[in-house]
Design goal:
With 499 residues, the chain is of the alpha+beta class. The chain is built from twelve helices and 23 strands. It has a ten-stranded antiparallel beta sheet with strand order 17-16-15-14-23-22-21-20-19-18. Strands 2-1-13-12-11-10 form a six-stranded antiparallel beta sheet, with helices on one face. β14 and β15 form a beta hairpin. α1 packs antiparallel against α10 (305-316), α1 runs parallel beside α11 (330-341) and α2 (66-79) packs across α7.
Length: 499
């Protein structure tokens, strides 16, 4: 079965190519670390753009978009009579229910797990060191009565995954494979998979990995409320409940315009809903307009990224998508095509050249005790890039960078998590690293500050931004990272002195 899509022009859906260009320009203005944007109307592909070197075959970690996959699996199991929304969590864990269990915990239901109203105040109860994540849920003392208020809770999704395994005998991706994936053309090559928790269950809270087209096909099934080619694969009533507001979230997201949370889906105005994952993984579904947006990337260091991606989409594109064909303007189509061809992974903005590099290059700086754990550092430059050599708590490391593109390599740090949390990956994580000198100062003098961005794009995604401010005989280093459960020694400040 092919996994390709029928294509049509944006104009056939009432969307000018210029509107898509305006959307992309808004995203690019913020220099977001994105990987792709795909737009569909009536299940036909009207636009796709990839930030090179990413492409349609890039395997993408969906992070919390995975939660919505778990919800659909629960819906299938409910349709088969294996689970009900009102089942108590305790029903599935007779081996784990503690003596003197708190009554609020004992009252928690599958519905409470689905809509994140468990009574827990923490977003997770476990750490990578915990051997059994279900045990941590039962050890947690609830802070409030379940079923009343929303509190983001990835442990709730973890519990749903284990419930599915106990009720169906299969991990949720395997369960969906037989009943959903193969029927909708999801992942015909069998490459999609899911990161495992420490106890060996598929981590539906964060771990689904698949290609962009596969994600889009699954989102389309949800937009059709579980129906595909006339066959109801998931109960329609369940999908309509799952993708509609089941609980208020204004205390959690005060600017949400009265949107809410369903069963592991975020809801939007006018019957819309979204898959929402850390780092700007999105599937924004607008069933009434038959419009779908899919994005991937890893942008956690920007506070505007997530709201911008959705709001700019609604403002520039959704408002035009009335399904009424408009005239194609060849110059707009050409401009959009040219712009798309030039998309590439985000790099720091600034200058490619600095005469001071001749003097700075090759200097070796030594550091007293510091929060980055750097002992020494040396930056060497060549025509279009360079390499940072340093020693930290991981040992001697080298990281190459490019001024005009991305230096692809493996990031020089341990990989504590691979296909299973807590079990090291068999090789380092792939990364792309670029650099720029800060722009000239107001008086025209050259700044001797080098910015280096490294984007990890692997089983785990991460952002690392490093600044090296060179003085006459010193360098001050600032590092800022967003990486879940790794790169902890790449965040902080340090100053080194020339040897």
């Amino acid at each position: 079965m092919t996994n390709d899509f029928e294509r049509k022009t944006p104009e056939s859906a009432g969307i000018p190519s210029q509107a898509i260009l305006a959307y992309l320009e808004e995203l690019q203005a913020e220099n977001l670390c994105l990987h792709d944007v795909l737009i569909f109307h009536d299940e036909k592909l009207i636009y796709e753009g990839y930030w090179k070197p990413m492409n349609r075959d890039s395997m993408q970690r969906l992070y919390s978009c995975s939660k919505s996959f778990v919800s659909v699996a629960v819906g299938v199991a409910i349709g088969e009579g294996l689970i009900t929304l009102d089942d108590k969590v305790n029903k599935f864990f007779p081996d784990k229910v503690p003596e003197n269990q708190h009554p609020w915990q004992a009252a928690t239901t599958v519905r409470d797990l689905l809509r994140m109203s468990t009574g827990n105040s923490r977003s997770v109860t476990y750490s990578p060191a915990d051997p059994d994540w279900a045990d941590t849920w039962f050890c947690e003392t609830p802070s409030h009565e379940p079923g009343r208020v929303f509190q983001y809770d990835t442990t709730a999704t973890t519990m749903l995954c284990i419930i599915l395994k106990r009720a169906t005998g299969k991990e949720f991706m395997e369960y969906l494979r037989e009943r959903v994936f193969d029927k909708i053309g999801f992942d015909p090559e069998g490459k999609a998979w899911c990161v495992e928790s420490t106890c060996g269950h598929q981590w539906g809270g964060s771990g689904v990995v698949c290609k962009p087209y596969d994600f889009a096909r699954f989102a389309m099934l949800c937009m059709n409320y579980g129906k595909h080619n006339g066959e109801q694969l998931v109960p329609e009533w369940y999908m309509r409940e799952a993708t509609s507001k089941q609980i208020d979230i204004q205390h959690y997201m005060p600017h949400c315009n009265n949107d809410g949370y369903g069963y592991q889906f975020w809801t939007l105005p006018d019957g819309g809903f979204s898959f929402n994952g850390m780092g700007c993984q999105f599937a924004v579904c607008l069933p009434e307009k038959k419009l779908l947006l899919v994005t991937h990337g890893y942008e956690q260091l920007s506070t505007v990224a997530k709201p911008l991606i959705i709001r700019a989409f609604l403002r520039n594109i959704a408002v035009n998508a009335d399904g009424k064909s408009i005239k194609v303007k060849k110059d707009e189509v050409s401009e959009l095509s040219q712009y798309t061809s030039e998309l590439k992974l985000a790099s720091p903005r600034g200058e490619k050249h600095n005469p001071a590099a001749l003097e700075i290059g090759g200097r070796r700086y030594t550091f007293d005790s510091n929060e980055l754990g750097i002992e020494w550092l040396q930056v060497d430059f060549y025509d279009d890039g360079g390499v940072i050599n340093y020693k930290n708590s991981d040992g001697k490391c080298s990281l190459e960078f490019s001024f005009s593109s991305q230096a692809e390599q493996f990031f020089p740090a341990p990989t504590p998590h691979g296909r299973r949390i807590g079990v090291s990956n068999d090789k380092p994580y792939r990364c792309f690293t670029s650099a720029a000198w800060s722009e000239r100062k107001c008086d025209g003098a050259q700044s001797d500050t080098l910015s280096v961005w490294s984007q990890i794009c692997d089983i785990y995604k991460a952002q690392l931004r490093m600044t090296f401010a060179f003085g006459e005989d010193s360098v001050t280093v600032i590092m800022k990272k967003d990486a879940e459960w790794f790169l902890d020694n790449y965040s902080g400040f340090a100053t080194g002195i020339i040897e």
